[in-house]
Design a protein that fits this description.
It is a multi-pass membrane protein. The chain is mostly helical and 796 residues long. The protein contains 26 helices and 14 strands.
Length: 796
């Protein structure tokens, strides 16, 4: 905040997100009027401000989007040095004169057409990325498994293990090296980063071109290395990266710019594109277009509206069409070991589904167990990730050592466990060869005699199209290494194992097929771990291609989510917290109602005069990391001390860089309209951004002045100092603010009390200032032994 407007150091700040939010400011070629007309309009605006010297309460206009919190350990990675996006229009004098929205229907039509065009391109690129990722994984893993199987056929068991383990090791280390050294932000699934970004937190490099490349290549290598990690999460991150890059409006560095694309150089439109990108990622991973839209709505988005629903649906529809066209190529046998390229997970058809009322108790039990196991999965994974964080913080060598250890252990388990399994005779009446010799397939001979296959080897030694039916998953201890890896597929496979086990235990007491129990088991564990209901339900239905599953899947999801919610938080919220992202929840905690906004304002408050000395601006920018500063007019420029508005750090840097200086403190300056272009104030893309240390000024420059009025947001959101903190946090989140100005209740005081940013609404900050409120902090209902006993006693 401007007083603590962001508590991090300037060097850590991602200045990109401090730039003008809305597509407003991108078209900010300053001053189209003459100097004289500008001075008159300026004086009129000053008189309007001076007429209300109280508090500008409830001014609506905004400088938006949430701010970021300070990070934990500097060594734990730059990804924690987060900034924020601006999801509201900056309404200053120049914007009101230059906004393209007021120039006629042609500009608006062009903007609308470009929005839909970008959604089409996003869907096409995300679909192609999903297809190529799956194609590469299937072929790389397929070659590895075929070579290993051939060696097993020749009774060269040690050589087979050596080739298998070495291949996995090389692939894992390749993924770990490119992630650790070139794009640390590409590690993990990426869904927590996307979720945090759509909540208003913009971590450095999470959507950069480098992150995109490493995410795709690293995901291919990690999944091909037999690490039981999924590609759904990385594809969601991939879709978000593609969306963000498209929304940057080209690149001046590579001379890939277009006048039209300036409309999208802002956080608000980029946020919408990233939302569509996350939906496209799920659609590409599971061929589930409707499920992708619902995933974006339910799991990652913090702001939603009907117009965005249409665009997201259009984007995922394009993904489905592109996938269908590309998979048709595979049907003609041109995809190598990729086979038919199908992504249907379980072959559940209408002929195998028949259930009755007596089948409901086993399904209810399955849902309760899934909720318990899902919450335990989250608990255990959190502990594992905390341990991994301690290792990864020690440096690159430890990151690579951890990845190497996991790879070797996984290879030993995958190769060693089938030796413990018995051989089964090949089934009759099947179209597929049994055993699968010299090719990828579902019936692995491994060490078995002719006409027999190894069940466990068939589950473990397979390409992606076959292993997606795998009922074994070691993904729990693998997630968290320095490589792109998702949780969705491991949870689905673990849930399928659990469901099939329950089906086997039920035996003749249930008429449900074991494959149906596997689907329901996956649903229950997804509901228990990720706490998604509608999106998971639709994704599973689209995967299995069978609507008859709907009632049972709905029942299982509702039960498992309800049970798990009583035990701990969902997995993505836990990871967001572990990564240190200052995520704003949808609710205000009860203790916030006991506080006013003035209770959490901290100092010192730094502000600028409407016409400020260059030296003062430079000093403040060098000694603080704040992103927003109040601008106050004092006599003789106003009748009394009055809050004129808010100016962003990024805009001050631009003014210093352009040397828009005045020789004296006077309103009658020079015409600066020709010194700026629309791109100067637009949202920057990935890469190097302006820094105060890079701007060289002379001693003479430091004695000059800058008129901040034309560049100041004259309508920031403000609240009176007596407003409830609970009400303020809801306003802050729902509107998507970055700064919230606190003004005094009395007009006899200074025109501003302080500034609130996202950091000030974090429980750690509030409870640190008011530790006595710790006991009244909101906690989810947790059912322990004591609470259960109390509930039952009260009922009796």
């Amino acid at each position: 905040m401007a007083m603590a407007a962001e508590k991090e150091s300037t060097s850590e700040v991602d200045l990109e997100s401090a730039l003008l939010p809305s597509s407003s400011v991108e078209s900010l070629p300053l001053l189209a009027h003459s100097t004289r007309s500008r001075q008159h309009s300026h004086l009129r605006s000053l008189r309007r401000s001076a007429s209300n010297t109280t508090s500008q309460i409830a001014i609506v206009g905004s400088d938006p989007a949430p701010s970021r919190a300070s990070t934990t350990s500097p060594s734990s990675s730059r990804s924690l040095a987060t900034a924020v996006g601006n999801f509201r229009l900056i309404e200053n004098e120049e914007f009101l004169q230059q906004d393209w929205r007021s120039r006629g229907r042609a500009h608006i039509l062009r903007y609308v057409v470009l929005k839909w065009t970008l959604c089409f391109l996003l869907g096409a690129l995300a679909g192609a990325a999903g297809f190529l990722t799956n194609l590469a994984i299937e072929n790389i893993a397929g070659v590895k498994f075929v070579v290993t199987s051939n060696m097993m056929l020749a009774d060269r068991h040690l050589w087979a293990f050596g080739v298998f383990a070495a291949s996995n090791f090389v692939l894992t280390m390749f993924a770990a090296v490119i992630t650790a050294f070139f794009a640390p932000a590409a590690a993990g699934s990426g869904i927590p980063e996307v979720k945090a970004y759509l909540n208003g937190v913009d971590a450095p490099e999470i959507f950069s071109p480098r992150t995109l490349v490493v995410k795709v290549v690293g995901c291919i290598a990690a999944v091909s290395s037999s690490l039981h990690v999924g590609k759904a999460g990385p594809l969601v991150h991939t879709g978000a990266c593609i969306a963000s890059i498209l929304g940057q409006g080209g690149s001046r560095k590579y001379r890939l710019t277009c006048k039209w694309l300036r409309y999208f150089k802002n956080d608000r439109d980029r946020r919408d594109l990233v939302t569509c990108g996350s939906a496209a990622g799920v659609a590409a991973a599971f061929r589930a277009p409707v499920g992708g839209v619902l995933f974006a709505l339910e799991a990652v988005s913090s702001w939603w509206r009907s117009a965005l629903l249409w665009r997201a649906f259009f984007t995922t529809a394009v993904v489905a069409v592109v996938l269908r066209a590309l998979i048709d190529i595979c049907h003609r046998g041109k995809c190598g070991l990729f086979g038919k390229g199908g992504l249907i997970m379980f072959d559940v058809t209408s002929d195998t589904i028949a259930y009755h009322l007596p089948d409901l108790p086993p399904v209810i039990i399955l849902g309760i167990g899934g909720g318990i196991l899902g919450s335990f999965y989250n608990f255990f994974l959190e502990k594992v990730l905390r341990a991994y964080n301690l290792i990864n913080e020690k440096g690159y060598g430890y990151k690579l050592l951890l990845a190497a250890t996991i790879s070797i252990c996984t290879s030993c388990c995958i190769f060693g466990l089938p030796w413990l399994a018995s051989c089964s005779p090949c089934p009759t009446g099947i179209s597929e060869a049994c055993p699968s010799i010299g090719r990828s397939g579902n019936f692995k001979k491994f060490q078995c005699p002719p006409d027999h296959y190894n069940d466990l080897a068939s589950l473990l030694f397979n390409t992606n199209d076959d292993t997606i039916r795998n009922l074994f998953s070691a993904g729990l201890i693998i997630y968290g290494i320095a490589a792109p890896s998702g949780l969705f597929i491991p949870v689905i496979l673990t849930g399928a194992t659990y469901g099939r086990l329950v089906g086997m235990l039920m035996g003749s007491r249930s008429t449900l097929d074991h494959s149906l129990f596997a689907v329901l088991g996956s649903a229950s564990l997804l509901g228990g771990s990720m706490r998604m209901t509608v999106s998971v339900c639709v994704i599973l239905l689209e995967l299995t291609n069978n609507l008859l599953l709907l009632p049972l899947v709905m029942l299982v999801l509702l039960i498992s989510k309800t049970v798990a919610d009583a035990l701990n938080a969902n997995i993505y919220d836990l990871i967001v917290k572990l990564k240190g992202f200052p995520y704003l929840e949808t609710h205000a905690e009860p203790y916030m109602r006991q506080l006013t906004v003035s209770d959490v304002v901290t100092g010192p408050l730094l502000m600028f005069n409407g016409i400020e000395k260059v030296g003062n601006i430079v000093h403040v920018l060098k000694t603080t990391g704040h992103h927003g500063f109040p601008v106050v007019d004092e006599p003789p420029f106003s009748d009394s001390s009055v809050l004129y508005g808010l100016i962003l750090r990024a805009h001050l840097l631009i003014l210093l860089k352009k040397r828009v200086f005045l020789p004296s403190r006077s309103l009658f300056g020079i015409d600066v309209s020709k010194q700026f272009s629309a791109d100067d104030f637009a949202k920057r893309g990935s890469g190097k951004h302006d820094d105060i240390e890079d701007i060289k000024l002379t001693a003479e420059d430091m004695e000059m002045f800058i008129d901040l009025h034309p560049f100041t947001n004259t309508s920031p959101y403000t609240v009176v100092e007596t407003m409830s903190l609970a009400k303020a946090v809801i306003l802050f989140r729902e509107v998507g603010l970055r700064h919230l100005l606190v003004v005094p209740k009395s007009s006899s005081r200074a025109p501003i009390v302080g500034i609130l940013t996202r950091h000030d609404f974090m429980p750690e900050h509030i409870l640190g200032l008011h530790p006595s409120l710790l006991k009244s902090r909101w906690k989810r209902l947790r059912f322990g032994k004591t609470s259960l006993n109390k509930v039952f006693c009260d009922l009796c």
